[in-house]
Structure formats: structure tokens, C-alpha cells
Amino acid sequence: MATLILNGKTAQVPVVREAVFACRDAGLALEVWVTWEAGDATRLAEWAGQAGVDRVVAGGGDGTVNEVANGLMRLPQGRRPALGILPLGSANDLATALGLPLEADEALRMALQEAARPIDVPRLDGRHFLNMATGGFGAEVTSSTPKSLKRLLGGGAYSLIGALKAWQYHPYPGVLRWADGDRQASLFVLAMGNGTRSGGGQRLTPQARIDDGLLDVLILRDFRSLHDMWRMRQELESRPAQGDFVETLRTPWLSFEGQRSLPLTLDGEPLKRQGFRVEVDPAALDLVVPADCPLLAG
Ligand SMILES: Nc1ncnc2c1ncn2[C@@H]1O[C@H](COP(=O)(O)OP(=O)(O)OP(=O)(O)O)[C@@H](O)[C@H]1O
């Protein structure tokens, strides 16, 4: 038996209803549970597992997928249903990177019929995420200027400078620790990827794989001038392990002790922490992915 946990704001969308009816007509057993507000998808996913459902499909955006995953992670691993995704958000960063179909009918069929593969589930303190956690500048302005970080990666440095000024940008100094080292860092941006893209298509951690037991970490250090920013952008092209402004590393865990509160996003949902620790639970959840999924390592 499978349950679709559907973000209530999409419950009356005709293509979604048609996709459900088409699957039922094809003989696939599917119940639909609809959310009303934040937190519902987590609770419903946990209940579905307790009721013995063996597959839960998250119907919504990255936020809904995150909530469902958190509900499933409350269950003991042996009783954790497999997770499928029906992408209905505005960004769908995880679904896109996984190579899932974005068309509702095809996506729902795949979520119900395709095999599930074990994936890692990172956890920031007590909160799980599937795709990416980011901290610093991008997280600070996500809600009002979602395209700002994209500009940094794609061009338009002058508009980024404008955005930085408008937001009275200050770096976030603190101590980073990870499995192979530690460093005092003045952060501009920190990205910790299980998946590769966040914020509506920014490929912050393009080498990340969802089943390698590791986080792919991108550290962008503070810069002082437009010239430094150009150098940062050049380094973002070549992705050195340790550049002047860009550093990349892989680790099963990472912690940050900041001098002030750092704005973060977990799968796009905002939160703030002065200090935190991120750890990977390897192969903790079975996720339905296409056979040729580009995010699988093995
Ligand atoms: N019935 C509902 N009506 C409106 N909002 C809802 C309802 N149920 C849940 N929500 C809200 O929707 C949020 C999740 O949104 P979701 O991620 O599915 O869509 P999105 O933000 O459009 O997607 P994306 O993250 O891909 O841009 C939840 O955190 C919750 O606050």
C-alpha cells in the first residue's frame, strides 16, 4: 500500500487529481492525505509508517519532501517506508537533480513503481535534510532576493554588490571543524550538499552524491573588494580544494562555532544557529530514483 502526502495548496490542481485517478485506474493502490499547514507532512509520514504503509510519496516542493523525510526518520529503520517524490514546488531542486520527471502523471507512476535505493540522510543537530543546507549570505536573503546568489555564480557582480550593500552584509566569523581538520573562517557562504543544487538551480556542490556517506562542502570566504569578488568567481569555475576565496571538501561530519548567529536554510527552509553540527546517517532511507540517476555514486 502507498500513501501520497500532498501539500494542501496543490490538492485541487487538475493535473494532480488526474495523475492520482490515472494511477488508480492502472490498478495501483494509493491513498491521499492532504496537509493544512507546516508540520503536517512530518506527522502524516510518521503515521503512515506506523500504519504499515510501505511507500510514502511526498507531493509538493522541496519543503514538503523535507518534512516527509523528517517524519520517516522518526521511525525505526526497519519500519521506515520508502520515499517517492511527486515534484509540485516552484524550485524542485532535489527532484531535478535526481533526474525525476517533473510532469505529474509520469512522476507519480515512477514514485509508485520504480525501485527504491538507499540514500544518506544528513542531520543538522536534530533536523534532517535530504538535499542541501546553506549558511550565510544566500540563506540571509533567500526569502526576498532569491536570485542574488545566482547572480554571483552566473554574472552581474555589480548587482551583487548592490544586494550586499542593501542587506548590510557582514561576514560570519567562526571555527569550522570536520573529519580531517579545522579552520578559523570568516564565511560569506557555506553550503553542505547531499545533493548538488539549491535555491532554484544553483549548482553549489556539483560533485555531491547522495549515497556516498559524505557531505560535499563549499566554503566561500569573505571578500573586501570587487576585484576579490572576480577572483572568487574565477575560483568558483575551477573549484580548487583550497583557493583564496573558495574551498571545497568532503566529510562525514562538520561543525561550526560562530561568533554570532548564522542564518541557515535546510532544504530551503530558514533557521538560525550560532553553532551547529551536521552529521550524515549513511544509507538511512530508501528513495525512489530513476535507474540512471546522476546523483548515485554506486
Ligand atoms: N494547505 C496548505 N496551504 C498552504 N501552504 C501549506 C499547506 N500545507 C503546507 N503548507 C506550507 O507549504 C510549505 C512547503 O511548501 P513546498 O516546499 O511544498 O512548496 P514550494 O515552497 O512551492 O516549493 P519549493 O521549495 O520547491 O520552492 C510548508 O512548509 C507549509 O508551510
Automatic annotation (TrEMBL):
It comes from Halomonas nitroreducens. Its cofactor is Mg(2+); Ca(2+). It is found in: Cytoplasm. Belongs to the diacylglycerol/lipid kinase family. YegS lipid kinase subfamily. Its EC number is 2.7.1.-. This is Probable lipid kinase YegS-like. It comes from the Bacteria. InterPro entries: ATP-NAD_kinase_N, Diacylglycerol/lipid_kinase, Diacylglycerol_kinase_cat_dom, Lip_kinase_YegS, Lipid_Phosphate_FormReg, NAD/diacylglycerol_kinase_sf, YegS/DAGK_C. One of its GO terms (molecular function) is ATP binding. GO terms for cellular component: cytoplasm; plasma membrane. Gene3D superfamilies: 2.60.200.40, Probable inorganic polyphosphate/atp-NAD kinase, domain 1 (3.40.50.10330). Residues 1-128 form the DAGKc domain. SMART domains: DAGKc. Keywords: ATP-binding, Cytoplasm, Kinase, Lipid biosynthesis, Lipid metabolism, Magnesium, Metal-binding, Nucleotide-binding, Phospholipid biosynthesis, Phospholipid metabolism, Transferase. The active site is at 269 (proton acceptor). The gene is yegS. SUPFAM superfamilies: NAD kinase/diacylglycerol kinase-like (SSF111331).
